[in-house]
Amino acid sequence: MARDAARSERSRVPAFIEPMLASQARKELPDDPRYASEWKWDGYQAVMRVATDGTMRLTSRNDKDFTGRLPILGDAMGDALEGRQAVLDGEIVALDDHGRPDFGLLQNYATSDDVSVAYFVFDVLLLGGQRLLDEPYERRRAVLEGIEVPDKNLVAITPSYSHADLSASGMSPADLLDVAKDRGLEGLVVKAIQSTYVPGRRSPEWIKHPLIQTIEVVVCGWR
């Protein structure tokens, strides 16, 4: 019984943490050392929870369970974590033949064997039993970038570009947005480097700058 209890404990995934959301941009891209820039992916934001034995749960921000459909993502992340518990925030993305995100393909991935799906991780909320929610963004990013992912075709760490990184390359956030356009990406998300992770909140410290402006609506009825 003790052995069964220990096995059960190893397979216990951490509790779900409701993801933090980005606010819609109302001003121009900030060209400011207080912010870092990340790619904005066109997919499903989802929280991945991994137990010490590699058991994984993958849940969207709308509480949709993707675990059964994408078990291979958990296998890849479990290898990277080397027996550590983790809660990660990221985006499930389908890629076309040119490696560009395609939301239409993602909607059809369950019925097609030809769709390539990856999980792009952009935050770490818990690692090895250490809760990181109250740590600033730049500290969480340092922890995240310390995780060595063996198969980047399945799970990859979303790059983060600090103001210093861009300046050293002679670029501005606006230039990076042009790169996003050239790569067929959805835009940028800029994040305050001192921002903590606030579950379930649409934070003004994370600002999404999509190349195409959209709005979310609730359909109440039709004729």
TrEMBL record:
PROSITE patterns listed in its UniProt record: DNA_LIGASE_A3
Keyword Acetylation: no
BP GO terms, sorted: DNA recombination; DNA repair
Keyword Ligase attributed: yes
Domain ATP-dependent DNA ligase family profile: 110-208
Recorded GO MF terms: ATP binding; DNA ligase (ATP) activity
Keywords: Ligase
Pfam families the record matches: DNA_ligase_A_M
InterPro entries xref list: ATP-dep_DNA_ligase, DNA_ligase_ATP-dep_cent
Family, per entry: Belongs to the ATP-dependent DNA ligase family.
Listed PANTHER family: DNA LIGASE 1 (PTHR45674:SF4), DNA LIGASE 1/3 FAMILY MEMBER (PTHR45674)
Name the UniProt record assigns to this protein: DNA polymerase LigD, ligase domain-containing protein
Source species: Amycolatopsis japonica
Source organism phylogeny: Bacteria, Bacillati, Actinomycetota, Actinomycetes, Pseudonocardiales
